[in-house]
Amino acid sequence: MSVLVGILVVVVGIAVSIALHELGHMLPAKAFGVRVSQYMVGFGPTLWSRTKGETEYGVKAIPLGGYVRMVGMMPSAPEGARRGRGFFAQVVADARDQSVEEIRPGEEQRAFYHLSTPKKLVVMLGGPVMNLLLAVVLTASFLAIGFTQQTTTVATVSDCVPTATGAACDPATAPAPAAAAGLRPGDRIVSYDGTSTPTWSALLAAIQGTDGHAVPVVVERDGQRVTLSVTPVDAHRAVVDADGAVVRDADGQVKVDDGAFLGIAPTIERQSLPMSLVPGEVGRMFTGTAGAVVTFPARVYQAAAQTFSDTPRSADSVMSVVGVGRVAADVAGLDATLLDRVAIMLSLLASLNMALFVFNLIPLLPLDGGHVVNALYEGAKRTIARVRGLHPLPGPADVARMMPVAYVMFVVLVGSTLLLVVADVVDPVRLF
């Protein structure tokens, strides 16, 4: 049941992300007077739709995207232009004809191509920016929930320095540095040797290399800060597992850990992470996603090669929506608290929205970035003409001429998606 719930959460999350992306296009388009005839989440056969005002709102069967149909995306052919021959020439002509046919008599000025360059940019960037905002909100949400982790609050204090054999130690002959310094369970270590220790990992890093030296330690005890002096020792101690049993290697020898020893164990509790980490986390997601998009063809090939060979699928392999759903199922089945699983789900959806943001900015039709480039080209032409004092100013950019590129991109995207779906079914990514 938990696995089904996990998959449902991701499916709903993806649907909401797509719906808000398209809403980011539709709202400014309507505000600028463009007639929006359709707002659809999904592709393929329509499962449900309802017309309100001049717009049909609906849900389609294949949840791999969505679209907003804005009337007049492409202007008619330039005056005097001849209808070309050949497949791609027919594609261009059909795109122009369809765009013009959508414009109702008397509503010519409501066509999208009549918008100014700044307004076109607002409309086309509205979708990706909505996904970016969602990524930020989701990132802030899972950081606020936090994760179960080790803290700098002391849970237990060792009586003595453990031995390399795992045998019982003697507090009288080898007292633990923490016990000798007066550290107690419940103390929260604020700083170590003058270094702030907000996390357990920061404390471990500060301890290393201080064996044999008297070090000041500031702890928070009963609401007050107390400064103690501790001298860690260089201990050769047996490695133990979670149950406290001594760990041995393949030859039966006790595994030994060397390094500065203090003699404390951390408490395990949920900690919310500060909101100051949100920009860095969002930036990390952006750079990682941008790198994946740049190398997308190579990564799709790698995923296919790993799927149809004995090479295991790498954990950082690109995935389809099916792969994301399988990861969600793995998350739902984790032996972890409900809040931990929710936090991981939110992190997964944040990464997905960042991917939608970056991917849609690729400057090729039919993606939003392709329309952005055309709008910038159109604006640049008009600006140059205005500076040169030319009249009349150039008309709207002839976007229809880019339709062959859009068709090729569409075939590539569909092919890549199908290939990744097969890979995610045959050899799914295993993160846990």
From TrEMBL:
GO biological process terms on file: proteolysis
Q: Which residues form the PDZ domain?
A: 174-234
Compartment(s) of residence: Membrane
The record's SMART domains line, in alphabetical order, gives:
PDZ
The terms under GO molecular function for this entry are: metalloendopeptidase activity
Q: Which Pfam families match?
A: PDZ_6, Peptidase_M50
Q: Give the highest taxon in the source lineage.
A: Bacteria
Annotated keywords = Hydrolase, Membrane, Metalloprotease, Protease, Transmembrane, Transmembrane helix, Zinc
Membrane topology of the entry: Multi-pass membrane protein
Is DNA-binding among this UniProt entry's keywords?
no
What InterPro entries does this protein's entry cite? PDZ, PDZ_6, PDZ_sf, Pept_M50_Zn, Peptidase_M50
Assigned protein family: Belongs to the peptidase M50B family.
The name under which this protein is listed is PDZ domain-containing protein
Species per Swiss-Prot/TrEMBL record: Xylanimonas allomyrinae
Tell me the organism's taxonomic lineage. Answer: Bacteria, Bacillati, Actinomycetota, Actinomycetes, Micrococcales
